[in-house]
């Protein structure tokens, strides 16, 4: 099963780098508010350059691995991607839809893993590898 990783990145603007192993690279989006398990939450996801696969293991002073695991590519067509995640915090279907230029929308599919009203990034802020949080 290919891997996905979500890295919390304290850059000038805090964001979550959501990366999927696709075509031998990590296809990547920067999500300012992070993923949500609430299908009613539409999260802006800005396409950013592919990273090499080794980057999925990177943690550093300004980066933690907020979630990781395997995923299945359920559907892919131009500007639309559906994935099924098996992470520690994120589960089930997520859709990424291109809305223009580098902008996409990330939304949880309304399936058994959906949790309306939840705020997973606030509930579980730490690294899934070490528990470390970024102040
Ligand atoms: Mn980043």
Helix content: under 10%
Query: In whole angstroms, how far apart are the ends?
Result: 33 Å
> Strand-and-helix sequence, N→C?
EEEEEEEEH
What summary fits the major beta sheet? 8 strands, antiparallel, barrel
DSSP strand count: 8
State mean pLDDT (0 to 100 scale): 97
Bound molecules: manganese (II) ion
Number of domains: 1
Which overall shape is indicated by the principal axes computed on the Cα atoms?
A: globular
DSSP summary: helix tally: 1
- What are the low-pLDDT stretches, counting only 5+ consecutive residues below 50? none
Query: Helix- and strand-based class?
Result: mainly beta
In quaternary terms, these chains amount to single chain
* Lateral arrangement of strands in the main beta sheet: 1-2-3-4-8-7-6-5
Give the C-alpha Rg. 14 Å
Compact description:
This protein is 3% helix and 53% strand.
Give a written overview of the molecule:
There is one protein chain. By secondary structure, the chain is mostly beta strands. It has one domain. 3% of the residues lie in helices and 53% in strands. The protein is built from 1 helix and 8 strands. It has an 8-stranded antiparallel barrel. It is globular and about 35 Å long. The mean pLDDT is 97. The protein binds manganese (II) ion (MN).
Offer a few descriptive terms.
3% helix; mainly beta; 135 residues; eight-stranded antiparallel β-barrel; globular; binds manganese (II) ion
